[in-house]
Specification:
The structure is a single chain. The protein has 291 residues and is of the alpha/beta class. Helix content is 36%, strand content 18%. It contains ten helices and ten strands. The chain has an eight-stranded mixed β-sheet, with helices on both faces. A two-stranded antiparallel ribbon has the order 7-8. Helix 2 packs across helix 3, helix 3 packs across helix 8 and helix 5 packs across helix 6. The two termini are 31 Å apart. The relative contact order is 0.15.
């Protein structure tokens, strides 16, 4: 498959070399770019289906590897693996790339980073798509994610890596085939120094989560969400069977932000990959209304 993006690097405020996939916009009138931010243990490859489609619609897409993930540097201090630092890293990318405003697409942790940005430098966010995350999250889902984050796994080959991803995510994607799980694994693992697949993130990303303890697992970001949703278009995407963004939390968000667009992706849990027909049917009209 032909690579549809350029490799871009930028420097974090504390000197890390960070990575993004830079998908150039198709020809046409200039439009605001999209900054795509992945979830806790994932990387920019999660957007490999939706990002080229957005680029074809005329918007540049910068899909980032958050520090400690993918091709971005691992942090010497694991306590810097926190949303506020991630948000400052994103602002450094915008400053170094000459981007003053953008549309933000955040999956899970990426949505939390987007809400943090609304508190730090609200004016950079022209609009936001929150994928299966809110200003509070269901404890069950967060505890499930925390349980496997940073754990070492034995995957001597790609079949074992695919089986591992299936064991974690089959409930969320019951329709996936063996080929889908292989593709999932290849987005989430890389070949390690000994020639076997290894998870493509620093296990130390779990250190701040463990240090915070169970009481701090469920953040309260309602003030940040209110600021995000008050002054700009927002689209909330929810997986119908999500254990992280519950029906009750989504309903509360919609009550707080009645103008917010909403779509529920049937038959999918946490988190939609955004290549689902229902997700695309909401995302592209939403983007089409933006400058």
């Amino acid at each position: 498959m032909t690579q549809t993006f350029a490799d871009r690097r930028w420097t974090s405020p504390d000197g890390l070399s960070l990575y993004a996939r830079d998908y150039p916009a198709a020809s046409g009138p200039a439009k605001l770019p999209v900054i795509a931010i992945h979830g806790l243990t994932r990387n920019s490859a999660d957007f490999d289906a939706i990002a080229p489609l957005i680029a074809q619609s005329g918007r540049r897409v910068l899909a980032i590897d958050v520090r400690g993930r993918g091709q971005s540097d691992r942090a010497p201090d694991p306590m810097t693996y926190q949303p506020l630092n991630y948000a400052h890293d994103v602002l450094a990318l915008l400053d170094q790339a000459g981007v003053s405003r953008a549309v933000f697409l955040g999956t899970s942790m990426g949505g939390l980073i987007t809400m943090a940005l609304a508190a730090i430098r609200s004016k950079v966010i022209a609009a936001a798509i929150l994928n299966d995350v809110g200003p509070e999250v269901a404890k069950e889902g967060l505890m499930r994610i925390a349980a496997y984050s940073g754990q070492q796994v034995d995957t001597p080959g790609w079949p074992e890596a695919a089986a591992y991803m299936k064991s974690l995510n089959a409930v969320a994607f019951p329709h996936y085939t063996d080929a889908d799980w292989d593709a999932f694994a290849r987005r989430t693992f890389r070949i390690g120094t000994e020639g076997a697949p290894v998870l493509n993130y620093d296990p130390d990303i779990a250190v701040p989560i463990k240090a915070a303890g169970a009481k701090s697992l469920v953040p309260n970001l309602w003030p940040m969400f209110s600021r995000l949703a008050k002054a700009r278009p927002v689209l909330l995407v929810r997986g119908q069977t999500s254990d992280l963004l519950s029906e009750a939390i989504a309903a509360k968000m919609r009550k707080r932000a009645p103008k917010m667009d909403f779509v529920e992706v049937p038959g999918v849990g946490h988190a939609p990959m955004l290549d689902e027909p229902d997700a695309k049917a909401a995302i592209f009209p939403f983007l089409g209304e933006l400058p």
